[in-house]
Write a structure and sequence with these properties.
Blueprint lengths: L2 H49 L22 H5 L6 H15 L8 E6 L3 E5 L3 H11 L9 E3 L4 E8 L12 E7 H52 L13 H50 L6 H32 L7 E4 H19 L2 E5 L8 E4 L1 H18 L3 E9 L2 E8 L6 H4 L17 H11 L3 E6 L5 E7 L4
Length: about 475
């Protein structure tokens, strides 16, 4: 399965799991919260009902047809006309007060006076009698759930101790609300909540699809580019446009492909140049050897031929030696022995090594930056760095007219060692590839000397560059980090 589909499936399953957990946790909490709210509402309604009846006189036994015996003629007593205006006012005030509250249309109420006299009831006689018995049990309000004839009810009792007449004190209101309507409200709220959560989940899923597609598509494109790298089609690799870490990886892959393309091209050029450099002396050796063997060259001609063969063999030996050295410098790790190397001593030893060439060409040396007493040092392999300086100074000696300048400076950026000459300079076409293998000027030898110098300097944690001086001549600058 593709990663895109796996991400979509995982996110969808996660949303379903969250919805299921939410449903399991919220559904009972909704009922508890609605029941608690309903109980509070019942208490508020009871208080409002009793406050809306300013006078609630209790009828004397001889003026009231209601009997305290609930089992005899209670149904008739509830509908009996009161004999006095006060009783009529009580009945009318109670009825109008209850009907005036729209919030308790589904709420049943029973008003009970002291002595278990029922003043008002919205329930049938049997259920009123059961509520009257329930009110005497004094159960905690949170536990009172009454089973009526057709439904279960939430029951709350409210007793007043204030009144205008002493007989009014102790009137109790018993309020009952059907539980079925609470559960219907619970289900309705739960369905609405699930619809909202489902809609939010669908929107989140669509957004996740968009985001994952934006994340996964660059990865797919990057995989295609890596397949090109695997097939060695480095020049066909394109930069995958993306942001964040994926963009950084894509940029690294693109740069890697460019480096591999350059390396591959350099390797091809190396083998082409190497074959050319080796082919020329081999042809000379073969020609003279076959001529001497066949008797074509005799006497002095044979001697000349043998001298040419010896020189070409020496040249071949030098080319092969430098090629092996360059390969070791670029690949092997254990051939460098790093230590503190004084710059002044290194320059003086280099000049002593190439002094015969300087005398032969009639050149003089100018040294700048070595007059102070400070002795700068670099961290490098002494013998190999000496080889690099010999190659650079030998190259300057071949092209200089009169003077070679050596300058050393030190600063916050490190120690700089510069070698320049007063020759014709480096041709512009060769300047960008002067440190490549088999890159030779007009009087060059093998074309490997500067490549070896660059490999040595870089392995010694330095950098080397070349440029032409404004007044003429070539300049090479080596930069090394400052020792602490």
């Amino acid at each position: 399965m593709r990663m895109l589909y796996r991400l979509h499936l995982s996110f969808a399953l996660l949303l379903l799991f969250i919805l299921a957990i939410t449903a399991v946790l919220i559904y009972p909490l909704l009922l508890d919260n609605l029941v608690n709210n309903q109980r509070q509402e019942l208490r508020n309604q009871a208080s409002l009902l009793m406050n809306m009846s300013p006078v609630m006189p209790l009828m004397p036994a001889q003026e009231s047809n209601m009997s305290t015996d609930m089992s005899t003629d209670f149904s008739t007593d509830l509908n009996t006309d009161w004999s006095t205006d006060a009783n009529k006012n009580l009945n009318m005030n109670s009825q109008s007060s209850f009907n005036a509250m729209p919030a308790i249309r589904s709420t049943n109420a029973v008003l009970i006076a002291p002595g278990e006299k029922v003043l008002y009831s919205t329930l049938p006689v049997e259920e009123t009698s059961e509520l009257l018995k329930l009110s005497k049990l004094e159960l905690p309000s949170s536990e009172v759930i009454w089973q009526g004839q057709n439904d279960r009810y939430i029951v709350e009792t409210f007793t007043t101790s204030q009144g205008i007449q002493p007989d009014m004190q102790g009137v109790t209101a018993v309020m009952a609300a059907p539980l079925s309507k609470i559960k219907a409200m619970q289900l309705d709220l739960f369905i609405r909540l699930m619809i909202i959560l489902s809609a939010g989940g669908i929107v989140a899923f669509l957004l996740s699809m968009l985001i994952t597609r934006r994340l996964v598509k660059p990865l797919g494109d990057l995989r295609k580019e890596l397949n090109k790298v695997e097939a060695r089609r480095f020049s066909e690799v394109q930069l995958v446009e993306s942001g964040g870490e994926i963009g950084e990886v894509a940029k690294a892959v693109y740069d890697l492909a460019g480096e591999l393309e350059n390396y591959q091209r350099t390797q091809k050029q190396f083998f082409q140049n190497a074959s050319h450099e080796l082919k020329t002396p081999l042809m000379s050796i073969q020609g003279y050897a076959e001529g001497i063997k066949d008797g074509i060259f005799t006497g002095d001609d044979a001697t000349i031929g043998l001298d040419v063969i010896a020189k070409e063999c020496e040249r071949l030996k030098k080319i092969v030696t430098e090629m092996i050295l360059l390969a070791k410098l670029e690949s092997e790790e254990g051939i460098f022995h790093m230590d503190r190397v004084p710059v002044r001593e290194l320059i003086e030893e280099t000049l002593a090594r190439i002094n015969p060439l300087l005398v032969k060409n009639g050149l003089r040396i100018e040294m700048n930056g070595f007059d102070n007493e400070q002795d700068w040092s670099v961290y490098a392999d002494r013998e190999k760095l000496l080889q690099a300086l010999i190659n650079i100074l030998g190259n300057a000696a071949r092209y200089a007219k009169e003077t070679i300048r050596i300058q050393a400076t030190a600063g916050t950026e490190g120690i700089h060692i510069g070698v320049s000459d007063d020759g014709e300079g480096i041709p512009e076409p060769l300047l960008s590839q002067i440190f490549e293998r088999f890159t030779k000027g007009k009087n060059g030898e093998t074309g490997l000397g500067l490549a070896i110098s660059r490999a040595i300097v870089e392995r010694c944690h330095g950098r080397i560059s070349a440029h032409n001086e404004p007044g003429g001549g070539a300049a090479f600058v080596m930069r090394f980090p400052t020792l602490s």
